[in-house]
Write a structure and sequence with these properties.
By secondary structure, the protein is an alpha/beta fold. The chain is built from ten helices and nine strands. The protein has a six-stranded mixed beta sheet with strand order 2-3-1-4-5-6, with helices on both faces. Strands 7-8-9 form a three-stranded mixed beta sheet. The longest helix has 20 residues. The chain starts with a strand and ends in a 6-residue tail after the last helix. The protein binds guanosine-5'-triphosphate and magnesium ion (MG). The site of guanosine-5'-triphosphate has 24 residues, from helix 1.
Length: 310
């Protein structure tokens, strides 16, 4: 009997949600960076285990929102949880443990606050979740057990897994458990499909990942990437044109860099990865435009599947 269902992966920004989804799927469907708030909209990846098809929904991190885009991102994450058959709450164990031992950075403390508010939200929704403690490759075993105990006592979790999305430790146990929780039914996607994102959008995401990797502070959050043209060429290669929108003229300058070096790096890194993902030669053309109001543009939200009016 075949099984199929939806699994929402929720958690504070930077917990490793996208890394976990990519690992379960077995290919890159969602971008990953060391910066918080990388994922901006729910991304679906498809993972298989025997006769079970698991549609994993990678969600934006849940945090205290300020901008319209933040609000829409957090709302999308909660909606993902609501609509799913199973909710996995992924927690960065290393950040929690650092805070509990008084060594936490400001970012760790922020993450711990977000975790507390997610637990509150899960409790209020009456949703039993699976707790997955992530990044066990960088924490001590005794501290991990103490943390497990504390979180389990909140009573919002059915079960706990300790994993490293980065190394894969513990992930197969989690996969088997998730597969067994899928309701009986026919598959949602063909067996060979691993992602549900258009190539144009994926291409924009790959470039946005490179922006996040290359520029810092507020600039990544002020930037957005759109694919404006995607043409198949007769020789089998793809010609992709993209615009990176930023909010201010100064940001445009930083993104271009001295003699255009920064943008060149971004374009080269993105082109390389797109060539790999698409399995053919890619010609990538990047433009940078200042559009103060891109984060207030209804069309942008629609493209990402985000609700503009939350
Ligand atoms: N050491 C370690 N690092 C990890 C692990 N999983 C993820 N990371 C790192 O944590 C950072 C954040 O990973 P992401 O997968 O982008 O996290 P996310 O939860 O999707 O983040 P947002 O999209 O911003 O909410 C990246 O630098 C990852 O390489 C892990 O198991 N161990
Ligand atoms: Mg992410």
């Amino acid at each position: 009997m075949s099984r199929a269902g939806f699994i929402a992966v929720v958690g504070a920004p930077n917990a490793g949600k996208s890394t976990l989804v990519n690992r379960l799927v077995g290919s890159k469907v969602s971008i990953v960076t060391q910066k918080v708030q990388t994922t901006r909209f729910p991304v679906r990846g498809v993972a298989m285990a025997g006769e079970s098809q698991m549609v994993l929904v990678d969600t934006p991190g849940i945090f205290t929102p300020r901008r319209r885009l933040d609000r829409a991102m957090v709302r999308a994450a909660w909606n993902g949880a609501q609509d799913a058959d199973v909710v996995v709450h992924l927690v960065d164990a290393s950040a929690q443990i650092a805070v509990d031992s008084g060594r936490g950075s400001a970012a760790d403390r922020k993450a711990a606050q977000d975790v507390a508010s997610i637990i509150e939200g899960l409790g209020a929704a009456g949703r039993a979740a699976i707790l997955a403690l992530n990044k066990i490759d960088v924490v001590r075993r005794d501290a991990l057990l103490a943390l497990t105990q504390t979180l389990y006592e909140t009573k919002v979790y059915e079960t706990v897994f300790m994993i490293s999305a980065a190394t894969g430790a513990g992930v197969e146990d989690l996969r088997a458990d998730l597969a067994s929780r899928m309701p009986e039914g026919t598959w949602f996607y063909p067996a060979d499909q691993s992602a549900d994102i258009s190539t144009r959008l994926l291409a924009a995401e790959i470039t946005r990942e490179k922006v996040y990797l290359r520029v810092h502070e507020e600039l990544p959050y002020a930037a957005n990437v759109r694919t404006t043209a995607f043409d198949e060429r007769r020789d089998g290669s793809a010609r992709i044109e993209q615009t990176i929108f930023v909010e201010r003229e100064g940001q445009r300058g930083i993104l271009l860099g001295k003699n255009g070096q920064t943008l060149k790096w971004i374009g080269e890194a993105s082109r390389k990865e797109l060539t790999e993902i698409l399995g053919r030669t890619v010609h990538l053309f990047l433009h940078v435009k200042v559009r103060e109001t891109w984060a207030e543009d209804r069309d942008h939200f629609a493209e990402m599947g985000l609700d503009f009016d939350v």
